Hints:
With about 230 residues, the protein is an all-alpha fold. About 75% of the residues lie in helices and about 0% in strands.
Amino acid sequence: MPQAMPQAIAETVFDIFYLGFAVITGLTMLIKGKNPLVRKAGAMTALLGGGDSFHLVPRVYALWTTGLEDNAAALGIGKFITSITMTVFYLILYYIWRDRYQIKERKSLTGAMWILAILRIAFCLLPQNQWLTYRQPLLFGVLRNIPFAIMGIVIIIIFVQETKKAKDSVFRFMPLAVTLSFGFYLPVVLFSGVVPIVGVLMIPKTLAYVWIVLMGWRLYRQSEGQI
Length: 227
């Protein structure tokens, strides 16, 4: 019997719907999409669902069995994998921006995004992260998220610029969704170790990603002539 039955039930139901939605939506766009932009959105969405499953499935298992601390290694490995997949997620989103608005130049920006992604992954690979422990060092949690946060800021700025210029109704709220995702995520990185209740912010963070997925789905429907 799980120690916190209401939490276990709530998280399990939420995660099943979220992961199922992300994976099915992503694969639908990836397989049925008629243009490269839609297929990129599908790959990004499927990666989101697939990557998050490495963290959320062990978490659900832990809640239904002996608790989070007893399953620290599985949770840590899942968190590590999700950290990598989310980095790739934003890299794909950057290329969606380039394709959507026909950006041909700005190669230095592309180089900067790749450097930030490589730095983020390099920081994640350092043993000092202590992924297999329950309470991981705050310092490395901050360090590995600095390049990630900069990637997010870049995405916000470039989408603000181009959605306004193009009057893009599909992605006009992308900057807000990305801002919300980071706004809910960063306090968890900084404070969840000392104030565990802050971890609840991961739910609205996930909903911000659902919003991003829905924008991709609207792009797919638009390409199919359904809207």
